[in-house]
Each structure stands twice: as C-alpha cells, then as structure tokens.
Write a structure and sequence with these properties.
139 residues; single chain; 31% helix; 27% strand
C-alpha cells in the first residue's frame, strides 16, 4: 500500500458499454481510499460516473474508454478519454439565464461537474478527446 498522500495514478481501459460506469465508480473509490486521500469520494464517484456515461453515450464505435486517476497530496484528477473529437458541452461557469432546464433529460451532468469540481476542462487527444475534473483534498 502506498504511503498516505503520496502521488499515485491508475489507468484502465473500460468497455464501451454502460457496464463501464459502475466499474469506474468502484475504481475511483478504491483509489481514493487506498491512498488515504481526503478528497470527497462520493463527489469523485458521481463526477466520474457522469464523464464515463457521457463517453459511452457520445463516442462512436466500440473502442474502449480510458479512465485515468491521478492522486496527489492536495488533489485528485480524473480524466476520461474517448474516440469522439467533438468537445463536450460548455464546462465553463454559465452566465445568467444559461442554466439547463431541470426537466430536461440531458445537460445536468456537465452542470454537476462544473459546480462540484475544483476545476474541469477538456483537450483534444491523438484519437479523440479527454475530459477531466479535479477535486481538492480536504486538509
């Protein structure tokens, strides 16, 4: 077992199916507990599930979805890579009157990520894109 609060990382290829969501949630929880991180595991699980579910829904084909978890002394970062180069919806803080309709089926996941994470964003990769968030560990 690593020393508490030492840097650690995990990387896994997930199936391009909805079965990837509970696998990703379990891996994030296990990683945070294993390293003794004080980041909120419930929030990390929720936001990871949103990223993986979005990748499963929006990435074409059957290529695996990659989950990367990096745990540092002061934060954790979770990144999901998929084969769809199209950026996700807006991950910036919404302006007045731009909140998603709570009655719509889509759009709340990115709102959760924007609201509950310390930081979030996306970047292109050689084979698609990576979407990420960070959570600050509690002191």
């Amino acid at each position: 077992m690593p020393e508490p609060h030492s840097p650690a990382s995990w990387r896994i290829a997930l199936p391009h199916t909805v079965a990837a969501v509970p696998i990703a949630r379990a891996l994030v929880r296990t990683a945070l507990i294993d390293i003794g991180s004080t980041a909120d595991t419930d929030t990390a699980e929720l936001l990871t599930a949103e990223l993986v579910a979005n990748a499963v829904e929006h990435a074409p084909g059957h290529a695996p979805i990659e989950l990367l978890i990096e745990l540092l002394p002061t934060q954790c970062q979770v990144e999901v890579r998929d084969s769809n180069p199209t950026p996700p919806g807006d991950l910036s803080v919404p302006g007045p009157g731009c909140e998603p309709d709570p009655w719509q089926e889509h759009g709340r996941g990115l709102l959760l990520i924007r609201t509950l994470s310390t930081a979030c964003g996306h970047r292109p990769t050689a084979s698609g894109k990576a979407v990420w968030f960070t959570l600050t560990a509690a002191p």
